[in-house]
Design brief:
- This protein has 20 helices and 14 strands.
- The strands form three sheets. It has an eight-stranded mixed sheet. It has a four-stranded parallel sheet with strand order 2-1-3-4, sandwiched between helices.
- It is of the alpha/beta class and 578 residues long.
- Helix 5 runs parallel beside helix 12 and helix 8 (194-204) packs antiparallel against helix 11 (249-261).
- Helix content is 34%, strand content 13%.
- The structure holds FE2/S2 (inorganic) cluster.
- Residues 47, 79-80, 115-116, 188-189, 193, 195 line the site of FE2/S2 (inorganic) cluster (FES).
């Protein structure tokens, strides 16, 4: 095959000379694939900090296989620090990566991705650019012990917050927890949060090497994986193995089932839809819900189960989960893994599911019955919403309650613990104004804490409904991603305190029990909802708010999706004098 980079480097004119000099290539380098190493390491993003060292191992692998490694920086999306949300910038980074590929002589790309949004951004870019690509996933952070228990990042912080608000955890304990969390070192959250979930899905779809989704963030295993990824990508370029051959409808369906089997993050539903949208695949909530109905919880990992991802990896990780699903015909084992083999040829090297003490169970002996995730729709969510059933309270899955409405995150934080707030355990907390357009960026504000005075009475869960997202490390009976969101005129914006809201997960319904005539009156009193968030609307947020799609369509930008095959054609630049 002809390398893409030949368009830059072949020839004897001044333009080709300029290009070769820029990368210090000599005649002996002709025919060597140029491999971009998209580096998201940043001091601002501890989850991706390990890439500073790992990038060199990738480069070693590229060189060993005969390629030319070129490292380039990418905006790092760190979940902990970015405001209002790293999600606001996922599409920007996907564009940055796609345009970097377009503009430069890259024959393939190794994406160094770990923290929540860096992974989907890389997948979206790989889908759109469609040059050979693999992700090197940055692995999980360590789990320091706190009061005799290994700490699950995120999940244990949320639990401790509830304990603190209930007066069970004192100030010294709270400070001790902080010190413990600070000791964990680089790497992704070590529970089945968004990063671990996306890593599993990436591996399942053949976009990372088998067995690499949940490595420890530091150590010889991940260094070997980095080198192997560099080597493998050079071979993929030579064989012209492109993402479009991996990211098929069957791969997407398998990923959706893996998501349910591991009790993964609800955020992954949006990210899968965004990747699918780039390729014209079907990632509708109806399709996902149908896929999820037959999938119980197979991975006993927090926040839905009990273990951490380090042990899940030792018990086989993604390959063993895939084997468990495949045994019931719920995974396409003829699909290609990241190393080029069919999954059914990869699996024998991994532990079987269901072994004594294994965190990976079989379909016949799951951790929890199906479904672990569900899509609901109804008069409150005409375009759908998502709930993580496995992290919810069973007795709240069919529940009707009185709405207690918060118009924004600030409103919720200000009034939630106000003694004057009228709220009972059976009420439904509605947090709106948190959708893709509303903030903009759809932050993880959907899981409102339980009001202080109810926590003190021992209440640990309530039905919550939001057009925002929640952290993959969170738990509770929380209906998320309500679409259309309030900021674009969705019925969530019409709810008033005291309205009755009915959640019926078995029937897949979410309804506002208010007569149509009353809703029409409220809608006309409210006027047309402006399509705009309330703040920070210049530059990228302005472009984002004007073009972002709703959650059920992946919250991608409308001009980046693939309504027809022609729209996904990657246009090569004119290569000449710059
Ligand atoms: Fe980065 Fe969890 S905050 S992976």
């Amino acid at each position: 095959m002809t390398l893409r980079s030949v368009g830059w480097f072949a020839g004897d004119d001044e333009v080709a000379v300029l290009h070769r000099v820029a990368l210090r290539l000599g005649p002996e380098d002709a025919g060597r694939p140029v491999i971009g190493i998209a580096d998201t390491a940043s001091d601002l993003n501890p989850c991706n900090a390990g890439f500073t060292a790992l990038a060199e191992h990738v480069a070693d692998g590229v060189r060993a296989a005969g390629g030319v490694p070129v490292r380039f920086p990418v905006m790092s999306l760190g979940e902990d620090l970015m405001k209002p949300s790293a999600m606001l910038y996922r599409n920007l980074v996907a564009m940055e990566l796609e345009e970097t590929v377009r503009a430069y002589p890259l024959d393939g790309v190794v994406h160094l991705a770990n923290c929540d949004k860096t992974v989907p951004a890389a997948l979206m870019a790989a889908a759109s650019a469609d040059v050979p690509a693999l992700l090197l996933l940055g692995g999980a952070r360590s789990a320091p012990e706190f009061r005799g228990r290994a700490l699950g990042a995120g999940t244990d912080l949320w639990r401790a917050l509830d304990d603190r608000r209930a007066g069970v955890l004192d100030d010294a304990g709270w400070r001790g927890l902080e010190q413990c969390l600070a000791c964990a070192g680089p790497g992704a959250c070590n529970v089945m949060g968004t990063a671990s979930t996306l890593a599993m899905l990436t591996e399942a779809m053949g976009m990372a090497l088998p067995g690499t989704a949940l490595l420890d963030a530091v150590g010889p295993d991940i260094e070997a994986a980095a080198r192997a990824t560099g080597e493998r990508l050079v071979a993929m370029v030579r064989a012209d193995e492109r993402p479009s051959a991996r990211l098929t409808q069957a791969a997407l369906d398998t990923a959706a089932r893996v998501l349910a089997a591991v009790g993964g993050s609800t955020n992954a539903v949006i990210h899968l839809a965004a990747v699918a949208g780039r390729l014209g695949l079907d990632a509708s909530l109806d399709r996902f819900d149908a896929l999820w109905r037959g999938v119980p919880l197979l991975a006993d990992v927090e926040p839905c189960g009990s273990g951490l991802v380090h042990r899940l990896r030792r018990d086989g990780g993604l390959p063993t989960v895939l084997a468990a699903l495949g045994a019931g015909g719920l995974a396409d084992l003829d699909a290609v893994a990241g190393d080029g083999r069919a999954w059914r040829d990869v699996l024998p090297a991994y532990p079987a599911p269901g072994a004594d003490g294994s965190l990976v169970r079989t379909l016949a002996d799951p951790v929890l019955p199906a479904p672990t995730l569900a899509a609901v729709s109804g008069t409150l969510a005409p375009s759908g919403a998502v709930i993580k059933v496995a992290a919810a309270s069973p007795d709240l899955l069919a529940h009707t309650g009185r709405a207690v409405v918060f118009d924004s995150y600030d409103d919720m934080r200000t009034r939630l613990d106000d003694p004057a707030l009228e709220v009972d355990p059976g009420d439904v907390l509605v947090v709106r104004g948190c959708g893709p357009v509303g903030v903009p960026g759809m932050p993880e504000w959907g899981m409102a804490p339980i009001p202080q005075r109810l926590v003190e009475r021992g209440v640990r869960d309530m039905v919550r409904v939001s057009d925002g997202r929640m952290s993959g490390t969170s738990f509770g009976t929380v209906v998320l991603h309500v679409a259309p969101e309030a900021a674009v005129g969705g019925p969530l914006g019409l709810v008033e305190d005291g309205d009755r809201v009915r959640l019926d997960v078995p029937a897949r319904r979410l309804d506002l029990l208010v007569p149509d005539a009353e809703l029409a009156r409220r809608r006309s009193a409210r006027g047309a909802a402006p399509r705009a968030g309330a703040q920070h609307l210049r530059g990228w947020p302005r472009l984002y708010a004007d073009h972002v799609l709703q959650a059920d369509r992946g919250a991608d930008l409308d001009f980046l999706t693939a309504p027809t095959p022609a729209h996904r054609t990657f246009v090569e630049p004119v290569v000449g004098r710059s």
